[in-house]
């Protein structure tokens, strides 16, 4: 019986320090024993060096389409639209006051919030798909991709702006509130939820445009781009923070389109699954 | 100002029936107006026919590794292990009584449950990554991939066994209970949560082995494999339900390994992100 054999093997492996697992990013090998035969594939870059990132793989990187129209705006037409619009506008005031012109810090903090809606929406659609025995039209993946993309924004900005303890505390509070609010909001009205995210993304574009202005004025130092950003957006090795902000802003414009589109689908009395989702729309 | 221009364009688009969106799976084009320029890419198969699935793309399909050891078992050593083991065993009795030998139906129903843990775990790790400004080591993706894989199992089995109304009602109830229980369980003890899923997968392997026996005895008709299964697992065109059950069972064995491994990492006092996640481990 294999049961005992595995049990013995386990004890053996536990006491040895050999490990088949390597750690993420800058973390070093730490010897995690495993008898499950799970080995993360080692990937090398074209220049022969090891691929450092476990949170994304080479085939998930992309060149951002920076030619996207940054000015596009959904004019609020209905009561719900206006409510979404003014909710976002109202949230901007405390944000402006708190961060002033510290756009690096602001970007980092806002990305912790921006990564919430995609995950919540994707999760709710996943469970809906299971409950209803229905296909998702790719929207689960599209929204989860958005959440991952926002998380990569955060992983990038935290390399250039280290959060302080009270900022960490603020993030935990805001996440707790926003997760619950968005979860309930999405259950009640996905139409409203996606519209609000559309407007949030319009504000994000504005905020990154201000960031660029400060960089150009020399008020914020145009430091070299973090290594993770160079790999994620396939940027040239000598890229700077300015290049990173440009591609991040393009990402936000794509999120704006996706979310306004999702809201429009609901406005037309349809369900998201009836329209093919924009997977890989960067 | 682009605002008004877009608004006019929107009205124009709204009244026209032209659409850039196509619908999922077997659903037909329905004309969803959009001025966001979002167009899902049309993909064709090597034989020139259109790729039908929006919930997964050709590059996400794979050939299941059916050579995986189906007998591997984690011997419960600690109190927590035994609790996880017996919780799963206890859950099997009502399941056995409810479904008896209707393995097609049983598979379909159980997949609606199996797709919960990966999504919950992935989501919680995503939010943890945001809160702590920490990389995930790829575990967010690995767990979300597991959830998607389980959803594809469901999408496959619902083609061969149509759920009845009381089964749909049961799914909604079970999902509500299990989502909350697993959510809380994962917050309290990810060690226990992953171990329990590991044992659930061991039971799933057993259940699919019984399914195969019934197919071989002729008690269940070995119908042709659903189209979605042929595309998802890159199966030959003349594959049957038996071939599908074989690859699904191999998937479950992979989930077993991943979850027992995740639990082991916690048992060694480590965090998941310290070990590279098995992405694309099928
Ligand atoms: Fe972002
Ligand atoms: Fe965004
Ligand atoms: Fe499954
Ligand atoms: Fe499974």
Please tell me about this protein's structure:
The structure is a homodimer of 282-residue chains. Chain A is 60% helix and 0% strand. Chain A is mainly α and 282 residues long. In chain A, 45% of the residues are buried. Residues 1-29 of chain A have low confidence and may be disordered. Chains A and B meet through helix 1, helix 3, helix 4, helix 5 and helix 8 of A and helix 1, helix 3, helix 4, helix 5 and helix 8 of B. The structure holds fe (ii) ion (4 copies). Residues 111, 114, 150, 153, 248, 251-252 of chain A line the site of one fe (ii) ion.
Strand content of chain A: under 5%
Count the strands of chain A?
0
Q: Which structural class fits the helix and strand makeup of chain A? A: mainly alpha
Percent of residues of chain A in helical segments? 55-70%
- List the chains of the largest interface with their residue counts: A-B, 85 and 84 residues
Distance between the termini of chain A: 51 Å
Rounded mean pLDDT score of chain A: 85
Ions, cofactors, ligands: which are bound?
Answer: fe (ii) ion
Radius of gyration of chain A: 21 Å
Largest sheet of chain A: none
Shape label of chain A: globular
* Number of continuous helical runs of chain A: 8
Low-pLDDT parts of chain A are 1-29
Seen as an oligomer or otherwise, the chain set is homodimer
Written as H for each helix and E for each strand, in order along the chain, the element string of chain A is: HHHHHHHH
């Amino acid at each position: 019986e294999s049961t005992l054999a595995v049990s013995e093997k386990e004890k053996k492996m536990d006491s040895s320090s050999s490990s088949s697992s390597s750690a993420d990013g800058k973390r070093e090998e730490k010897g995690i024993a495993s008898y499950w035969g799970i080995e993360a594939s080692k990937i090398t870059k074209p220049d022969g060096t090891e691929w450092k990132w476990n949170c994304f793989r080479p085939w998930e990187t992309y060149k951002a389409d920076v030619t996207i129209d940054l000015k596009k705006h959904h004019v609020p037409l209905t009561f719900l639209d206006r409510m979404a619009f003014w909710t976002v506008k109202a949230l901007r005031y405390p944000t402006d006051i708190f961060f002033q012109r510290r756009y690096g810090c602001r970007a980092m903090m806002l990305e912790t919030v921006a990564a919430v809606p995609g995950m919540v929406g994707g999760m709710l659609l996943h469970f809906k798909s299971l409950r209803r025995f229905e296909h998702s039209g790719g929207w689960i993946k599209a929204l989860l991709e958005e959440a991952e993309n926002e998380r990569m924004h955060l992983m990038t900005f935290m390399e250039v702006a280290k959060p302080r303890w009270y900022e960490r505390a603020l993030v935990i509070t805001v996440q707790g509130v926003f997760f619950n609010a968005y979860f309930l909001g999405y259950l009640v009205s996905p139409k409203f939820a996606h519209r609000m995210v559309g407007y949030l993304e319009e504000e994000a574009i504005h905020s990154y445009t201000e960031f660029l202005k400060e960089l150009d004025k020399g008020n914020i130092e145009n430091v070299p781009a973090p290594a993770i950003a160079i790999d994620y957006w396939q940027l040239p090795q000598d890229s700077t923070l300015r290049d990173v902000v440009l591609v991040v802003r393009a990402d936000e414009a794509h999120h704006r389109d996706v979310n306004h589109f999702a809201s429009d689908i609901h406005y037309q009395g349809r369900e998201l699954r009836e329209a093919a989702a924009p997977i890989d729309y960067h």
